[in-house]
Design goal:
mainly beta, 3-stranded antiparallel sheet, 3 helices, globular
Length: about 250
């Protein structure tokens, strides 16, 4: 509910991002792997740790996404594209199982502002290079290959698909995105509020899912929290042509 105390235009007629929900669609490549439990416990709040297992399911994922946001004040939808790289881990909050994206990079200011301001995602700027038939082809076919590389302050991440395999059955639904966030009061002079958003993307179209063979690596400086995390024995998959509605189903844990 909008407070009647302060009237529009608010906070300014210059809009930094469009409110949710956003329609997101495109192509993603994922390397699924197991991270050592002790490593994850060093970088994740204990209030978000998953069940007691020796390893934690993790993923390195690269996105090539088109988006459409609601109409702006002129009545026109806001559309664009962005690339993104994410390192995420299985997590639990308030009894809800899901994934928490602890490291996120993008090449889009609009998406970075939206993700930070609306959800509290830890998005930072990074250079993301996508090359090869996997990324250049409008329609994918078996045998496609390609490389995704992130270059960001503190290190690099690389995911190489050597060969696209056969089509697989789609994964039903989508994981809940567990999102820890800080809400600052009086510009941080008053104590902050900490909360966890449960962001559930609505799958409009599952897209086509493929198995793949590949290689992935994380190479971060000693001072970076991801230093020393290895991607071994990963499973690789590609999803093409999916369509998600993000920001229409959000709860507090």
């Amino acid at each position: 509910m909008v407070s009647p105390q302060w009237r529009d235009p608010w906070p300014s007629p210059q809009i930094a991002w469009a409110d949710p929900p956003w329609h997101l669609g495109g192509r993603v490549v994922t390397a699924w792997f197991e991270a050592p439990r002790d490593f994850v416990e060093r970088i994740m709040s204990p209030d978000l740790w998953p069940g007691d297992t020796p390893t934690v399911r993790a993923r390195l994922r690269f996105y090539d996404i088109s988006f459409e946001a609601p109409a702006d004040s002129a009545g026109s939808p806001v559309v664009g594209r962005f690339r993104e790289a994410v390192v995420a881990f299985r997590a639990r909050a308030g009894g809800v199982e899901g994934e928490v994206s602890l490291f996120m990079w993008t090449d889009s200011d609009a998406y970075m502002l939206w993700g930070r301001e609306v959800f509290g995602w830890p998005l930072v700027r990074g250079r993301i290079d996508l090359s090869g038939s996997l990324w250049d082809s409008r329609t994918l076919a078996s045998g496609a290959a390609g490389t995704a590389m992130l270059s960001a302050p503190g290190g690099q991440a690389t995911l190489v698909v050597d060969e696209l395999g056969r089509e697989q059955a789609p994964v039903p639904g989508a994981a809940c995105w567990i999102t820890p966030r800080r809400v600052l009061h009086r510009a941080g002079l008053d104590p902050e509020t900490r909360e966890v958003l449960l962001v559930r993307p609505v799958v409009r179209e599952a897209g086509v899912r493929y198995a793949a063979t590949g290689r992935a690596s994380l190479n971060f400086d000693r001072s970076h929290p991801l230093h020393g995390l290895r991607i071994d024995d990963a499973a690789y998959e590609v999803v093409d042509g999916f369509h998600l509605l993000v920001g229409a189903d959000v709860d507090l844990a």
